[in-house]
């Protein structure tokens, strides 16, 4: 399986906008982690960006997970980029 990194951007009012969707978002991430697809994910300290590492058969799998996330569907994440990643060490 390949590894992928995701860089996402949060909306300007992230703390307020994410509140009603946070529980569903975290539950979905926990399921992805249990399935072995999500390695790690989290925000930058200034809450402007999100960074994640995934392990999946295809980039399309990662994109589907991101686009089905409540944060994406409700505008908490405003844009994202996925790149295949080569882990050197």
Brief description of this entry?
This protein has 89 residues and is of the alpha+beta class.
Largest sheet, in brief, is:
4 strands, antiparallel
| Shape estimate | globular
The helix/strand class is alpha+beta
Q: Could you say what the CATH architecture is?
A: 2-Layer Sandwich
* Number of H/I helices: 4
Mean pLDDT: 97
Level-1 CATH class name: Alpha Beta
Poorly predicted regions: none
Number of strands: 4
Task: Give the % helix.
Answer: 25-40%
The number of domains is 1
**What is the element string, with H for helices and E for strands?**
EHHEEHHE
Radius of gyration: 13 Å
Describe the model:
18% of the residues are buried. This protein has one domain: 2-Layer Sandwich (Alpha-Beta Plaits), CATH 3.30.70. Helices cover 35% and strands 36% of the residues. With 89 residues, it is an alpha+beta fold. The chain has helices at residues 14-18, 22-34, 59-67, 70-73, and strands spanning 2-10, 38-43, 49-56, 77-85. The chain contains 4 helices and 4 strands. The model has no long low-confidence stretch (mean pLDDT 97). A 4-stranded antiparallel sheet has the order 2-3-1-4. The radius of gyration is 13 Å and the shape is globular.
List keywords for this structure.
89 residues, alpha+beta, Alpha-Beta Plaits, four-stranded antiparallel β-sheet, 36% strand
Topology:
Blueprint: E1 2-10, H1 14-18, H2 22-34, E2 38-43, E3 49-56, H3 59-67, H4 70-73, E4 77-85
Antiparallel strand pairs: 1-3, 1-4, 2-3
